[in-house]
Design a protein that fits this description.
about 170 residues; mainly alpha; rod-shaped; 7 helices
C-alpha cells in the first residue's frame, strides 16, 4: 500500500511540474517586447517637449505676433522681458531651463521603467544602456533647443518684423 502512495505522489508531482512549466511557457508568450517605434517616438516627444519648454522665453512673442494678437513692439518687449529678465522676471528663464531638464530626467525615468528597468539591480545590469541613452537624449535635447531658439524662432521672428537681427548667431 505504501508503494502505491509513493507512486501516486510521484505522478502527482510530475503532473504539477508539467502544468507549472506549461503555465510558465504560456505566460512568457504573453509578455511582449517593447515596440521600438513606440520607444523612439516617446524619446522624440521627450526631446521636443523639453526644447519647447526651454524656448518659452521667445516662443510666446513669435506666436502672438504671428497670429496678430500682439504688435511687433509688444512681442519684442515680451521677449526682451522674458529672455533678459527685465522688470523682475529674472527668474523666468532659469525656471524654464530647470523645467526642461526636469522633463528630460522624468521622461528618461518613465522610458526606462517602460523598458522593464525598475529596480536598482536591473539598472546596474543595464547601466551601459541607461548611460548611453541618457547622454544621447540630453545632447539631442540641447542641440534641438539651440536650433529651435537661436535659429528657427530667430528667423521666424525676423520675418515677422521682430528686431532680432543682432541676435543671429552666424552674423556676429
Amino acid at each position: 500500500m505504501q508503494s502505491q502512495d509513493v507512486e501516486d505522489l510521484q505522478s502527482t508531482t510530475t503532473v504539477i511540474q508539467n502544468e507549472s512549466v506549461q503555465d510558465f511557457e504560456d505566460s512568457s508568450e504573453e509578455v511582449t517586447q517593447p515596440n521600438v517605434d513606440e520607444d523612439s517616438r516617446s524619446l522624440w516627444k521627450l526631446v521636443a517637449s523639453s526644447s519647447i519648454i526651454a524656448s518659452m522665453c521667445c516662443l510666446p512673442s513669435v506666436v502672438l505676433v504671428m497670429f496678430g494678437l500682439a504688435t511687433v513692439s509688444t512681442g519684442a518687449a515680451i521677449s526682451d522681458t522674458l529672455y533678459w529678465g527685465e522688470d523682475g522676471y529674472s527668474w523666468f528663464r532659469p525656471l524654464m531651463l530647470a523645467l526642461a531638464l526636469t522633463t528630460v530626467i522624468l521622461g528618461l525615468i518613465f522610458y526606462f521603467r517602460n523598458q522593464g528597468i525598475c529596480t536598482l539591480d536591473q539598472a546596474k545590469r543595464q547601466r551601459r544602456k541607461i548611460i548611453n541613452t541618457s547622454i544621447l537624449v540630453i545632447i539631442i535635447s540641447y542641440i534641438s533647443y539651440l536650433l529651435l531658439n537661436y535659429v528657427i524662432l530667430t528667423e521666424i521672428g525676423i520675418l515677422l518684423g521682430l528686431p532680432w537681427e543682432s541676435s543671429r548667431v552666424w552674423t556676429k
